[in-house]
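Support case: magnesium ion complex. Customer-provided input:
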Amino acid sequence: MRQSDLTYQLERFGLLFVWLAFIALFGAMRPDTFLTWSNFSTIFGSEAVLVIVTLGLIIPLTAGDFDLSIAQVLTLVSMTTAILDARLDVPLVLVIPLVLALGALIGLINGAITLYFRVHSLIVTLGVGTFLHGITLWIGNSQTISGVSPMLMEWVIIQRFWGIPIAFYYAMLLAVLIWYMLSYTAFGQQLLFTGRGREVGRLTGVAVGRVRLAAFVLSGIMGAIAGILYTGTTGSANPSSGTFLLLPAFAAAFLGATCIKPGRFNPWGSVIAVYFLVTGINGLSVLGFRTFVQDLFYGGALVLAVMVSQLVSGRKERGL
Amino acid sequence: MRQSDLTYQLERFGLLFVWLAFIALFGAMRPDTFLTWSNFSTIFGSEAVLVIVTLGLIIPLTAGDFDLSIAQVLTLVSMTTAILDARLDVPLVLVIPLVLALGALIGLINGAITLYFRVHSLIVTLGVGTFLHGITLWIGNSQTISGVSPMLMEWVIIQRFWGIPIAFYYAMLLAVLIWYMLSYTAFGQQLLFTGRGREVGRLTGVAVGRVRLAAFVLSGIMGAIAGILYTGTTGSANPSSGTFLLLPAFAAAFLGATCIKPGRFNPWGSVIAVYFLVTGINGLSVLGFRTFVQDLFYGGALVLAVMVSQLVSGRKERGL
Amino acid sequence: MTKTFGGVQALNNVALSIQPGEVHGLLGTNGSGKSTLIKVLSGFHAPDAGSLEIDGRPVTLPMPLGRSEAHGLAFVHQNLGLLYEASVLENLIAGDHERLNPWRINWRAEAERARVLLAEYELDLMPDQIVADLSPVQRAQLAIVRAADRVREHRHYGAPGVLVLDEPTPFLPEEDVAKLFAIMRRLKESGVAIIFVSHDIDEVLEVTDRSTVLRDGKAIGTYYTASTDRETLVHAIVGRAVSVDRRVSTLSESRPIATITRLSGKILRDVSLSVRPGEILGLTGLIGSGHDEVPMLLSGAVQAVSGDLMLDGCSLDLTQLRPADAIAARIAFIPADRQRLGIAPELTLTENAMLPILGHGAWLNHEKLRRATAELMKRFTVKADNPGQAASELSGGNQQKLVLGKWLQLGPQLVLLDEPTQGIDVGARQEIYDRVAEACARGGAVICATSEFEQLETIAHRVLVFERGRIKAELKGDDVTKASIAQACYEGAQTHAAE
Amino acid sequence: QDGIANAQANIAAYSGIPEFVAPGVPFDAKACMADKSILTIPASSAIPFIKVIADHKGQLAEGLGFKHEQWENQGNPTQWIQGMEYAANNGFDVISLLAGADPRFFEPQVKAAQEKGVKVVTSHLTGLEIDAPAGVDSNTAIDYKQAGKLMADWTIAQTGGKTNALILVSNEALSTDSLTDGLTEAFGANCPDCQYEIVNVPIVDWATKIQPTVQGKLQANADLNYVIPIYDSMSTFVTPAIAIAGKRDSVKVATFNGTPFVLDLIRDGTVEMDIGENLDWIAHAMLDAEMRLLCDQEPITDSKVPLRVFTADNIAEVGNPADAAMGYGDAYVQGYRDLWMTNE
Ligand SMILES: Nc1ncnc2c1ncn2[C@@H]1O[C@H](COP(=O)(O)OP(=O)(O)OP(=O)(O)O)[C@@H](O)[C@H]1O
Ligand SMILES: Nc1ncnc2c1ncn2[C@@H]1O[C@H](COP(=O)(O)OP(=O)(O)OP(=O)(O)O)[C@@H](O)[C@H]1O
Ligand SMILES: [Mg+2]
Ligand SMILES: [Mg+2]
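Agent response - structure generated as follows:
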């Protein structure tokens, strides 16, 4: 580490530099529109939900588990929130704790099945996620439900600080919390030992099972938070929304693990990864490219970014 | 193993029994329509593509890699086939080798990036898959392309043996080949060591890199075969076809690893898993249940099946 | 204490009492139940029956993971329990539930504390080093220091505590064993009790006060070290007498079968050496001397910086050599890191043993392979149920015999051994020596890198002692004794021209 | 000026409660359908718009006393194919591919079914001027072109000929061509100076691409005053984009389909205008056309299902929360009873 401080710093902040380079490039091409504060506030404000989903994923990922159900937790929570709020007129102060508890419960179920039956988390969460999708369709009668109280939208995207919708700050707050948890608490260390060396963790006295369970519950709660914010962002809930966030969130989680703290899933890396990808998409749209170019960029940038990061680090073998 | 032969056999064939139980259940409810040969031939014929995608996945999975791009390979190949055949009138005898080579090339790219840059295959194939989706939209102009030559359809679903479209037999043939490859060739053992004891394999002379590369190429080719059959089944290509298949294929691959050869990805387990899940969905359709029930069934059956399988095997810890 | 795994009775009514301030040896053949007993104490396994009292107070079993510390128990497990990807500091504080504030880890203070601790034990480690980058010895030291620290911490809570060391020494060269013993004695003087597992009888005799011997899960007896001798213990462990005499056949003069020239690697500098047919060549040295690099480089496990190998008339370029080429040249390499490099634990015995002889097989006859494995297991006395078992279900010693069988079945002309008897009991050790000797008798040559001088005395025709990547001494024939090897290792001044 | 007036007139014509127009001559449906059966394969049972039509068709068939089933599916072409084979194997007379189950996705199965004597029809799939796709027996169409025109006319009328619109389309849907034609024709005829840009977002990518695309366009073109997602389900992703860009006051949304939640959004003020169709009416019209095919009547191409423009002014008529069958009057119910001769 010591001897190659420069390379290491380059590796840590490589993605950040690439991001800045992209901003410079798009900025040079359309300085009047791309390089405006309003454009950036749009970029920052728009992907808060994706950031939160990604943050939710990295907790079980650190503990060595996949949570594929998080997207469906989002959708179910979003639907539940909309139904309770718009159809049944339950006040938001009740709805929010209720749906957070729902998220936690689902996390608990994921964890309990994975742990008690010793099944790979991939298949458990895939199954639970599909089941949740069924419930979402059921309770929402496959409809998009709108008419959510303006209060929720007010506190998600209408209110702004420095021009950026408040949802962005929620996401940043969560990133800070998770960063603190992973770096400065015993639980964070236990997560790490659980994920990378389950036996080792157990031998050093980590209650591996409980840690994994907690990770699932936390990701369930994060999914629920994302669901609430999603409802607030769109003012409605539709039964397929979350589905499309899953792969981008995984991409961001893995891409994020190449920077800031290379080799470990980390919240700031994830945040940078999300906004790096979003900036690219936004820039292409501002420049008027056709939409398929977004896919080319997204896929290409993802692969190139990890390739470059690996080149910088001397193609180190990573455990992850 | 010996002492608990019965449990072991129960574990091996558990899913098969559950499948038969489901057939009996649906059959009892609608003997006239569900329990007809024509219904089964429909089920067997129409899901051949999913079987092939699942078979494609288990090759890199055995070698310890994920190939998330396989669905997009399918879509791209399907689109390319349709365009070459229907728009450019290239004869099928040329088109087919061409698109198989395309699939192999994509596998090669996946493998090369994963291996040379030592990046997790999850992120590489996710990136490459997204990129391919962009290309598909581009070349197909986001349209459904129809007018594929009847010859292709003839040799995919029109021709039947015992009432089942020939595509089913292609899938079975591929299952036999892969079963043979995994069980009876040195390459199969090398794949296994590459996935489960990479360093041991390497020191025993297994060219681990080449094996992983080969696995990616094979899954690319399987994706291409699935793409050709998809085009032949529907007589057209649309830019979203593969998307629906990725998660079901993963589910089937992991579910399949709980039976026949428990603890290992295996072709017959995968085939059974696919048809188990599909039979359920089909039965629910025939019985006229609303669609959300299909999701409830799919998710619930997946989780229950692995839970039961684990209970039978005494909740053994699995490496997979 | 009783514990059964499936059909295996790992512990059968074992009773054991440890007094404060004593070093208590725990001996037994591979698979006799030592590690299992320890894992029950740490809460890793739940016992079927049995009770535990600490300081006269009964403790409910199974102990929840992480609670053992509160009772003053600290462990160094057989595979150390370190996370390789994490830093020294992260490993050092892992599981330190008693002391750490769970809500806020003060990394700066912890790093300071770690620096002091490492300095105190005279370890040349930095808190921010990654464990994967450490040498095996440093890792072992880290694990021991961690456990010692925990026990000492515990003294602030009253009772002095118990330190449990499950085979800490195979990783350590002699000088560090001495250091470890010094640490142990210091702890002992402060009233800490120590449970010490080792297959090295001399170590046991040197450091313990009493020893308990396990055989097949039963406690055979407890012996006072002062009134016991080597033979008694060996007899108790193995259940029969074992001779550990030098057993080297005389070699007829012949041309070398393998000649290595100008070999350089990470540590090695321009080393040249050769072996003759039937010869067992020992390589040894202190940590970091580079002797253990030789088998790695010759087998293609790691590519050399420079060097050539002339084997039976063929020349191999060691900078290009891959394991497959080495195998084709009939070189066999039995690595030290069994768990990672030797066996694939999830796969069956057959699969593990047969991989190298599959070649490009396009039609594997599983029945034949199974029979061949059963045959191999019999020949190498691998104790197991059947060839279809997962390799993880074997004890370490049996795993090692399986690995040996896997390679020796190929009839190699050059056998490379790296710490071949690490963690292997006295009885199994003899069997392994027999097998190696057989390979020699068939005209092969053996290069054995090890830090166990006694082993070299027993089997080696000739020993090369390394220092800083170069050969510093060569001992032959009757000079190959434990004492003279030790002398050559530790005396810096002597210079010999090798070859 | 003429253009604006034309546009206003066109809007006005479609703002009131529509009249019933009989698509053909009366026939005795009950008698002729007695031993016939229809299987409806909806594009996706998970899309409420389509599911409601299929359900209503079933209820009408029950009233008329013949067998009607629907093939529950989740929009996966493999499932459509299974439905096709199910119909062919179980002796149905007509397969009705409803509202987007596109037969170009499975031509061979269409042929196979036809060879077994099953008639295959597409219902509510294309615009009037488009031929029946993939060799199906009949195609009952909707006046999508008019819907396109109405969306254009609305923006022209609202802005007084100063429209600067972003139009979101999905090229792979067959109705898109008609809608786009309608939009461009109306702009061409009534407001040649209006600006608009058409952006294609494939249906699979709606959830991931619409929002960033709209945001980007709003930045790139500060003068945009309308976003026209041609299918109103797209608005879920359009409205947050506008809100995040902070342009809720200057950019309006005009769209088509009459999906209930979008009608609710009109009430909330997030969407300005939505062109709707009455789902129950569609069910009547589609069933009518399918029965005529089986009863040797003149085939129906133009279903005569009317469109209605919904805005804040008439949104109260659809109920709260909105009901997809409200706001169109009920003259058609009696109208079809007369056509089918079910009045005692
Ligand atoms: N997890 C387990 N599952 C099944 N059997 C086990 C397990 N762990 C240990 N055993 C069995 O228990 C017995 C005792 O094993 P243990 O590890 O305690 O031996 P040991 O005395 O530590 O041996 P060594 O000297 O090789 O370390 C062995 O027969 C082993 O096969
Ligand atoms: N997972 C397992 N399942 C079944 N049996 C096991 C398992 N793990 C260990 N054993 C059995 O437990 C016994 C002891 O295993 P263990 O690895 O503890 O041996 P050990 O005494 O430590 O051996 P060594 O000294 O060679 O390392 C072995 O006989 C092995 O067969
Ligand atoms: Mg042990
Ligand atoms: Mg052991």
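Chain D has a mean pLDDT of 87.

Case will auto-close in a few days if no follow-up is received.
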